[in-house]
Structures are given as C-alpha cells and as structure tokens.
Amino acid sequence: MAWRLKVIFLAGFLLALPLAWNALGYLNLNPRFGFLLLKQSAVETGWYLPAFYSHVIVSAFVLVIGFFQVYQPWRLRFPNFHRVFGKIYVAGILIFAAPGGMVMSFFIQRGPWVLMSFVLQSLLWFFTTLRAYESIRKGEVVLHQQWMVRSFALTLAAITLRLYAFLTSWTFDLTHPVAYAFIAWWSWVFNLMVAEVWIRRRQPQIL
After folding, report:
1. Does this model's pTM top 0.90?
2. Which one is predicted more confidently, 192 or 75?
C-alpha cells in the first residue's frame, strides 16, 4: 500500500473511532438521549427506535470492522479473523444496519430528494454487501473484493456525510432541503465513484 494511501486510510480510521464511540453511547437505551431527544414524534410511532438502534449501534461495529477487512496486510496475516469479522460485517449490514437505515429514512423529513438519497443508499448498501457475500461463497475471490470495496465505500458514508456537513456548515444553510440533499447524495455517490475508479485501476487484483 503506497504511503499516500496509508495516510488516507489511517485518517479515515481515526475519524471512524470517535464516530463509533459516540454511536455506542446509545447502548444506554434511553429514548431521550442525545439525538433521540429531537426525534420524539418519530420515537412515539414505535417504528423509529428499533430502526435507530439497529442502524446506529450496529453500524459502529461495521464501520470499524470494515477497515480491518479491506486492509491487505492484516487480512493476509490473520485470515481466520478476516473470515469471522467478514461474517459479522455482512450480517450486521444485511440484518440490522441497512434495514434500520431504510426505516429511518422515512422519518428524516428533509424533502423527497433527501428521502430518495437515503433509501437508495440503504438498498445499494444491502445489495453490494449481499453480492460480496455471494461471491465469496462461490469462491470468486476477485469479484468478492470488488463488491466489498463498493460495500465499504457506502459504509464510509457515515464519515463523509458528517465531514461534508461540517465543512459546508459555514457556507450553506443545511436546514434548507436542497442544501442538505446535496451533501446527502454526495456523501455516498462520490464514494462509489472513487471505488469504481479504484476497482478498474487495480484489476484483476484489488487489495
């Protein structure tokens, strides 16, 4: 791995740690804790809270695990851990994180473009992860790596969404639906674009 890529990788991992730690704070299961205090009308529906915990808490583990899964030196040195972590990553997304994110999308109330962004992101996150799992089950290692790169690119949207929101907060009014819709779409579309460029430049071996 080139040193520039290592720097980017390390920076992403260091950004993921506090994000994951903050998400794990919701293990207190207090429905009025933190961000949930702003979503009490959604909590009262009975749908939002289970989806929130499924998405936010499990995504914390998925995000951190994902870095280990795509880091080649660790993967090659600890293949057994790679398989175990891979099962946790896949199950976490398919059973909890992606479905939870999908349900949460309908309670954002930021307009149709934001809704479309998060719904499509959840569907693609589920699909790319499922394809990565199906590929490795068939012994198609290179195809598995390709789909896993796409899946992890969508996982990283947890970081890029917050990063873009922070960087644009001084310039744009993010309470405006159009402004928020822009960063909502760009947080994962750009990630997928980078992933596709990476895949095509590294064929037939990805990482």
Report:
1. yes
2. 192
